[in-house]
Amino acid sequence: MRYFLYGYYGYGNFGDDLLLQGVIEGIRSRDAHSEFFVYSLNDVQFYASDPSVKFTRLAHLMENIRTRPARFTTYLAGLGRWISGSDVFVIGGGTLFIDKGGMSVSLLVLYLAILWAKLWRKPVVIIGVGVDCLTHPVSRWLTKRIMGAADFVAVRDSLSQPYVSHRHPEQTRLSADLALSLKFEPLAAAPPRFRPVLGFCFIDYYRTVDISEVGHARYEAAIKSFLESCKKHYNLLCITFQRGIGQRDDWLEPMLRAHYPDANIVHVDTLEAARSMAARVDVLVTMRFHLGILGIMWGKPIVIIDHEQKMAALAKDFSLPSISLQEFISGAQLDMQGLLATYDANRTSARLAIERDRVATNFEWMLKSRGS
Question: CA separation (Å) from 367 to 29, 34, 68?
């Protein structure tokens, strides 16, 4: 069968690349002859040379759409062709349902795509998705309509469940993040270190998400204060997942080179790079959801900076210590030792086992569609 996969793919974000791999490998394990059409900005390295995976690059047509509105017609026509040429429309992985304070154009486009799929009688499934902050009434309406139109929905976390409460329970599941379906080899034992290594990842939040010069100044000051306190006890390692695009967590590099030249910087864009990074760190502080997932899978103590509902859900579902972003930038000193004292490796490992079992429910729709 041919599957049209819709998500934030090809944006240079390693977390989204993991989600794509989770979708493709999950479907392939149940349909050996599957082919994939991937809604994307660019090709994803994992599958760039895979003949059964075709990247549409449709998202390029949405760039500068406000100044070039004629592109929208071309975009919709292309989207329609890819959907009509597939057998199943799969909306998969990540926080696709979020509006960041305004009406979401991406949700409107997704709703139009579903209407097109329904017109062509294509099954529509939504798997491994999270629902975050939806403040605009149109965004909330679109989300409800999209969820209601799908033949099967599996949400990623417990905090997203209220958004599917109107659906029939037989076609609705609480699942888990799709990256958890991937199998990673355990890390080799780390050699003794003179000092533990703290890995940290801070997205450029107040210049890409909640735009605020005042907020950004407080945020940068809080990060400097945090690093000052941590360098007394840890070696520092800055971890980046996305560089120069999106929420670009490489934005800290100039400040680190100027004020913390001993801090190392590592960019994660492959599974090998992820393993190497994980082997180097002893503790993680993250605003990246999938850095948290990788840390959980490899047994690293993690502190969550909760800036969106997905991070709150990650902390809740895996019993991880966390603080809100507002608390972090308040000027109070972050108490790393106090937070880490609440981390329970056994409890997090038990939660991981539950989530690992639950991740298979993302693909229950395939059993029914194949008559099993």
Answer: 12, 14, 43
